[in-house]
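[step 3/7] inverse_fold.run input=structure_tokens len=209
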């Protein structure tokens, strides 16, 4: 798998029609801030919700950092993911540029996507994404960071953006059990080698299998 450009055109990438999940990262241009105020995060989430519904993608986990975003997402159609990011670039990018009186692309020009082909790696990506604020020193507990899906997956807070993945649903027979088991998983730090594998796959655009 190769990197996707912001215009929606992939480089030799083929996404299976089986709705396989992907770990996706998009960074601000030159690593600039893409969120400056609380309302920016809210606007991005609103634009994301619209795009998820219109371009048929299931979002399983996300984290919004100050200069980049992480998503665990399953596109239902071949063109779902590029269309989603084109929409975000137009809707949120236009809002951000107008609000802060800037011009040009807000994003780095492409997003990075890694196909996830094993259950083990899927749960690692869940944790990698939602524990990112802790690794960045922004919080001591994942539930304290507002702009992540951990409060939904780990604590049961309603998040209309989230569609639980089948593997997440296997964590327990009911919501409370699943959330408790997920919290236990997130209490276990990822090994350095596991994080290296995830980052390498994103950088190279190769599957995690």
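[step 3/7] decode complete -> sequence:
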């Amino acid at each position: 798998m190769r990197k996707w450009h912001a215009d929606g055109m992939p480089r030799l990438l083929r996404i299976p029609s089986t709705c396989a999940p992907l770990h996706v990262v998009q960074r601000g241009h030159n690593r600039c801030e893409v969120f400056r105020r609380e309302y920016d995060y809210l606007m991005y989430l609103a634009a994301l919700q619209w795009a998820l519904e219109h371009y048929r993608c299931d979002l399983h986990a996300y984290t919004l950092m100050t200069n980049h975003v992480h998503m665990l997402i399953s596109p239902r159609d071949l063109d779902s993911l590029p269309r989603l990011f084109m929409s975000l670039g137009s809707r949120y990018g236009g809002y951000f540029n107008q609000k802060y009186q800037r011009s040009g692309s807000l994003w780095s020009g492409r997003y990075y996507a890694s196909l996830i082909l094993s259950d083990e790696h899927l749960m690692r990506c869940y944790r990698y994404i939602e524990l990112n604020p802790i690794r960045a020193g922004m919080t001591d507990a994942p539930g304290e960071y507002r702009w992540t899906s951990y409060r939904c997956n780990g604590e049961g807070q309603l998040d209309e953006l989230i569609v639980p993945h089948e593997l997440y649903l296997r964590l327990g027979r009911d919501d409370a059990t699943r959330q408790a088991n997920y919290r236990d998983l997130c209490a276990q730090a990822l090994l350095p080698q596991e994080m290296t594998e995830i980052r390498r796959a994103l950088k190279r655009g190769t599957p995690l299998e």
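[step 4/7] annotate
The longest strand covers residues 107-115.
DSSP finds eight helices and five strands in the chain.
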